[in-house]
Amino acid sequence: PQSNPREIIENARRGGYAVGAYNMHNEETTEALLWAAEQADSPVFMQVGRAIIPHMGVTRAFDMTRRIAERSNAKYVIHLDHGSWDEVMEALKLGFSSVMYDGAHLPFEENIATTRKVVEIAHAFGVPVEAELGKIPDAGESVDWEDYYTDVEESRRFVAETGIDYLAISVGIVHGVIPGIPLAPINIQRIREIKAATGIPLVLHGASGLTEREIIEARAAGVHKFNADTDLRHAFRAGLEAVFARGDRQLEEAMAEGRARMVEATIHKMQQYGCAGKAAH
Ligand code: G3H
Ligand code: 13P
Ligand code: ZN
Ligand code: NA
Q1: Which of 59, 74, 214, 231 has the smallest number of CB atoms closer than 10 Å to its CB?
Q2: Share of the chain above pLDDT 90, in %
Q3: Closest residue by CA, ligand 2 atom 4
Q4: 202 CA to centre of ligand 4 in angstroms
Q5: Could you give the residue ranges of the DSSP H alpha helices within the chain?
Q6: Is the pLDDT of residue 179 over 90?
């Protein structure tokens, strides 16, 4: 069964570490995340996100994840990543144990009003809510960071008025990475200020491409959930490419190699986030 996400995040907050949330894309990537969690003895957030939803829909993605996870010994929760209103409602009925409602594209007051309604409904299901304030650009977009950063005063009001459980913030992070091009440094001071203003656990999306030092500093500043996808997808893809570089091979052989490399990459993230060895806590 799914574990209690509030308890997992609260343990991370008390222990001064963070938990990883990773996107699955098919059976093999789902297995990779669960095998990594078992091998690293780590809790894991299995995210149904923006790539898999158009591919198989929320319901099929949930059914696949649950079916595979129930056979594993991992400590896991199934989480909806960047959900719309309709997707959150679908996820709650299906039995997700954690949801993100993403109203970051909305004007501030509307984001508050809609997120508050989501929280009321989700909490009636006993499910905690992650919401986003500030905007997270895609890697390679050129942006004026001041328009994208989470505003500290707004974050105080947003959290107080919506009752969310964890807040996703924008502090210089981007979704994705561009291989070979370093990302802008993230603003650790802004994380500290948002933490002081809100008092709730913070979430850093776009964690692929962060340096080890940024991860350590972000943890210390109040980040207790990292979302990472691209680095793990690249690890899986490198496994496929290595097999196909040897000739016309079976898909199963390629996917097995992709899965093996994704397990290793995920264990490495769990070590960096500090959640390796924490499944029992
Ligand atoms: O108030 C809730 C959101 O605006 C979306 O809900 O589709 O019922 O308007 P709705
Ligand atoms: P990356 O692909 O940059 O790791 O971002 C993942 C993410 O934020 C999913 O919500
Ligand atoms: Zn994200
Ligand atoms: Na990133």
Answers
A1: 59
A2: 95
A3: 228
A4: 16
A5: 5-15, 27-40, 52-70, 85-94, 108-124, 145-148, 152-162, 188-198, 212-221, 230-244, 251-273
A6: no
- Cα separation, 151 vs 133, in Å, equals 8
Known catalytic membership, residue 86: no
Catalytic, out of 41, 81, 138, 144: 81
Counting from 1 in the atom list of ligand 2, the atom nearest the Cα of 23 is: 9
| Three-state DSSP class for residue 21 | strand
CA of 176 to the centre of ligand 2 (A): 6
Q: Is 208 annotated among the ligand-binding residues?
A: yes
- How many CB atoms within 10 Å of residue 266? 28
ipTM for the whole complex: 0.82
CA-nearest of 236, 207, 248 to 45 is: 207
The atom number, within ligand 2, closest to the CA of 208 reads 4
On the question of pLDDT at 281 being above 70, the answer is no
- pTM of the full structure: 0.95
Q: What would be the CATH architecture of the domain defined by 5-273? A: Alpha-Beta Barrel (3.20)
